[in-house]
Amino acid sequence: MDRYLYRHIHGDLKRKMVLLSGPRQVGKTFLATSLMGAFLKPQYLNFDDIEDARIIRKRNWAHNADLLILDEIHKMRAWKGFLKGTFDTRPQGQAMLVTGSARLDTFRQSGESLAGRYFSYHLHPLSVRELAGKMASVEALTLLNRLGGFPEPFLSGSETEAARWRKQYYTDLVREDILEFSRIHEVRSMRLLVELLRRRVGSPLSYASIAGDLKVAPNTVRNYLEILQSLHIVFAVRPFHANVARAIQKEPKIYFYDSGYVDGDDGVRLENTVAVCLRKHVDFLQDTAGEAIRLCYVRTKERHEVDFALAGPTALKSLIEVKLSDDTPAAGLRFLQRKLQAPEAVQLVQNLRQPQTVNGIQIVAAADWLAELAA
């Protein structure tokens, strides 16, 4: 099936280089090769292939290629400068698509500048919105909670096959990708960190508590989390604050891109799936429309809390609470809706008999609401 970014990337390839990042096995290569069908003389090269790597280093690809796809190029030494030179000297009319997982999404932090030369996209796992029209939204949400949204385990339809895929997937991530970022003696601690995070999805994360469990310094935990985020294993949702810098200092909540890997009950998995869908929605709006929107959560000093919020640069747009079956507005949502006067307050319920509105709070079926997101 065509992925949700196909049309947008195809349009942008006519104007600039496109950088496509995302987790391993989320479908980047499938999307890239699908785009080849829209060109007359496309060429795909993967730096993981020895022969392709030789061609890339020497720039011996077909110069009349109207689409050049460079996959996993971030594994090449001095790849940022290489990309800049390649783009600036390419034949007129040649489109360039660069794909990768780790590091590619963080290239702007240092090194050669590609300012003005690229559009950036983040490819996410399948979501209720992307599956709309292919199956009922309720079925999509149920399957995403059980199998996660990565294409291979999801399309297998089997929890057994999904478990087999997941075992190999995380083994490969530890063996190959984590070692790119850290020293070998740290791998054990990072594997333990991943196991700890699987059981703490949706709770504000105490660096000090995790550091005690791992017997390392809190700053080391922060560094490990940065690596796990760079590898697109987890992502952080930070508390809302009008001053973004202050929010970064507060305790984040951690979610997995793969809901099927979460170690928790049905409610926790549902919350993780909603987090993935919301993160995908936010990245899509940022990538395709340049919209200033971010995903966060809200928590007061008195511990009134709402699971998620969508916010602009300084103000909240939506308050979002997630429940498995409870259709009574949550106390934290009621309090914060009155206090903050957000334009939208919604409680998503997976097992809902009847939508309703109570004192300005919308009680809606989670699957139906998620199906209306942007991506």
Q: What this model shows, in words?
A:
α14 (331-340) links the parallel β10 (316-323) and β11. The chain starts with 5 loop residues before the first helix and ends in a 5-residue tail after the last helix. The relative contact order is 0.10. It is globular, with a radius of gyration of 21 Å. Strands 7-6-8-9-10-11-13-12 form an 8-stranded mixed beta sheet, sandwiched between helices. A 5-stranded parallel beta sheet has the order 2-3-4-1-5, with helices on both faces. The chain has 375 residues and is an alpha/beta fold. The chain has helices at residues 6-12, 28-35, 50-58, 79-89, 128-131, 137-147, 151-156, 159-181, 187-198, 207-214, 218-230, 244-249, 266-289, 331-340, 366-370, and strands at residues 17-21, 42-46, 67-71, 95-100, 118-122, 234-239, 253-256, 294-299, 305-311, 316-323, 344-349, 356-358, 361-365. It is built from 15 helices and 13 strands.
